[in-house]
Amino acid sequence: MDIKAIVMGLAFALIWSSAFTSARIIVTQAPPLTISALRFLIAGLIAIFVAKLMGQTWRLSRLQWRTVVIFGICQNAIYLGLNFVAMQTVQASLAAIIASSMPLLVALIGWVVLRDRVPKLGVFGLVIGFAGVALIMSARIAGDVDVFGVALCVIGALALAIATLAMRGVSGGGNLMMVVGLQMLVGSAVLVVCAFIFEDMVINWNLQLGLAFAYTALVPGVIATFIWFVLVDRIGGVKAATFHFLNPFFGVAIAAVLLGERLGVWDVIGVAVITAGILAVQLSKQKG
Q1: Alpha carbons 56 and 42: distance in angstroms, whole number
Q2: Which residues of 20-36 are buried (b: 16+ CB within 10 A; e: fewer)?
Q3: End-to-end C-alpha distance for the chain, whole angstroms
Q4: How far apart are CA 263 and CA 269, in angstroms?
Q5: CB 185 within 8 A of CB 72
Q6: How many angstroms separate the Cα of 97 from the Cα of each of 50, 90, 155?
Q7: pLDDT tens for residues 180-237?
Q8: Residue pair 218/105 in contact by the 8 Å Cβ criterion
Q9: Which of 48, 136, 157, 226 is 20 to 30 A from 64 (CA-CA)?
Q10: Are 191 and 36 in contact (CB under 8 A)?
């Protein structure tokens, strides 16, 4: 792994983790489903425009169209939609910790459902990783955490894991940025329907909301996704996924600095354990 790949990996992990803090700012001032639908509409159109500049088309393979639908529904509509709803009452740091368990869930589903081979180091990583999640959850639930909001985050993380598994083999047909844009439009379409049913679709714009919305749509939404696909193309999906072990640390650190969210001793210990578990799982894949 060269220096450029390391820099891209660190940038992706930092940007991805920062999205929880910006989302927390957004949902305190706007209907979560409505603002999410608008976010994906804008980000999707930008990504498609960039894809056209890169010479890509929407003449996708059957596998890519399937990925567009599954990824758009599971990641954008379910995972991010539910996270935006949950973060009305759940702290950004806790949402980031739950979402960071995604590599563990992917490995677990691959092992149990898809019969992927998991080396002993990977099994060890799964055990300690989920132990870290349980440690944090038990400490938070004993406090004043919103259990319903946490449940939404957990369902979202499972949907993200399914979306990630659906990406297997999608890079073979090219047009990756077009896939990114189209799956965002799918998510936007689903969320518009949900917002129409469940929300008053009125957004009260102000400077703070505008800045947070622009950042969330452009930086985590488009730029981070582009960095991810370039990184995967450069070093492969398994090695690129290793950078996910940084997400728990970055997520809680950014929330603490920008939102002033307090972290307990068990939170710190739990984040360290989860980080070690994710790293062990990803290293086991490289060795396997």
Answers
A1: 19
A2: bbbbbbbbebbbbbbbb
A3: 17
A4: 10
A5: yes
A6: 32, 11, 14
A7: 899 899 999 999 999 999 998 888 889 999 999 999 988 987 888 778 777 876 776 6
A8: no
A9: 157
A10: yes
pLDDT-based confidence at residue 32 (cuts at 50, 70, 90): very high
Are 271 and 131 in contact by the 8 Å Cβ rule? The answer is no
- Are 100 and 193 in contact by the 8 Å Cβ rule? The answer is no
Length of the chain as a residue count? 288
- In angstroms, the Cα distances linking 228 to 63, 65, 103, 208, 255 are 20, 20, 15, 28, 22
Element at 247 (helix H, strand E): helix 247-259
Contact yes or no for 116/238 (Cβ under 8 A) = no
Calpha distance 139→71 (Å, rounded): 32
Report yes or no: 22 and 254 within 8 Å, Cβ to Cβ.
Answer: no
24: left (phi over 0), alpha (psi -120 to 50) or beta: alpha
Distance CA 57, CA 192 (A): 25
For 142-173, what is each residue's pLDDT tens digit?
667 788 998 999 999 888 888 777 666 555 55
Cβ atoms of 26 and 215 closer than 8 Å: no
Measured between alpha carbons, how far is 150 from 87 in angstroms, rounded to an integer? 9
Is residue 138's pLDDT more than 60?
yes
With bands split at pLDDT 50, 70 and 90, how would you rate the model's confidence at 288?
Answer: low
Give the torsion through C-alpha atoms of 70, 170, 64, 54, to 10 deg: 120
- Return the closest-CA partner of residue 247 out of 229, 224, 222, 217: 224
Q: Specify the DSSP element, H or E, that contains 183.
A: helix 176-198
Q: Which amino acid is at 262?
A: R
User: What confidence score (pLDDT) does residue 169 get?
Assistant: 54
